[in-house]
């Protein structure tokens, strides 16, 4: 069905793989469109509980497609950036948790794609960077915004202004990724995290994501209200009744996403 993206759901996990290895999985218009379509499918699929996003071959996503971008005029470039933002924002706000399994280069648009995910697990071979200024460009898919929120303004400015490419260990040190593992352990580690998440109440996980995302950039009073309201909503769910009953009865809960 898709030409540039592989997608399957197995045991509750939606596996999404950018499949353009001959171009190091660079994001062109088609990849962006197909990824957006895949994530819309995932949002509507009750069998998909958690997403693992990765890249085929030795690259996660090496960036946006320079060959395609070099032909754009200002209006076309703005539309291209808007499409990229639309994809990143959709991934950022989809209710289901998204884990980036960063197996290699995550540069430019690839770094931005990883940052739109909830959790980033990196192979020791992974490389991160926003090299756009070296091409006379700036990050166009959210890099100037998400990077500063993850690593702080000063570090984001240093990485963007210098176009430095950093290794996984340094990315972990500055808070760009959550964990670094050996290449052969990458998918196993992501599946382990996905399994832990799927064992918890889906509604509670989705509401936690909602509160974190929507409360991060507002004042504490407004953010607290997000949490108060969402906390109350959980009490109308069967998951909450099941979770508290299981705790009191000293048994494992069986959540039904209700």
What can you see in these coordinates?
It contains eleven helices and ten strands. With 258 residues, the protein is an alpha/beta fold. The strands form two sheets. A six-stranded mixed β-sheet has the order 1-2-3-5-7-10, sandwiched between helices. A four-stranded mixed β-sheet has the order 4-6-8-9. Strand 2, helix 1 and strand 3 form a beta-alpha-beta unit. The longest helix has 20 residues.
List descriptors.
258 residues, alpha/beta, six-stranded mixed sheet, four-stranded mixed sheet, 11 helices, 17% strand
Assess the beta-strand content as a share of residues. Answer: 15-25%
- CA-based gyration radius: 19 Å
Largest sheet: 6 strands, mixed
Note poorly predicted spans: none
* Overall geometric form: globular
Order of helices and strands: EEHEEHHEEHEEHHEHEHHHH
The residue-averaged pLDDT reads 96
Please estimate the helix content: 40-55%
Strand order across the largest sheet = 1-2-3-5-7-10
Number of separate strands: 10
The N- to C-terminal Cα distance equals 31 Å
What's this model, at a glance?
The chain is α/β, with parallel strands linked by helices and 258 residues long.
Task: Itemize the secondary structure elements and their pairings.
Elements: E1 5-10, E2 13-18, H1 29-44, E3 50-55, E4 59-61, H2 66-69, H3 74-93, E5 98-102, E6 105-107, H4 109-116, E7 119-123, E8 127-129, H5 143-151, H6 153-162, E9 165-167, H7 168-174, E10 179-181, H8 186-198, H9 202-215, H10 220-234, H11 238-248
Parallel strand pairs: 2-3, 3-5, 4-6, 5-7, 6-8, 7-10
Antiparallel strand pairs: 1-2, 8-9
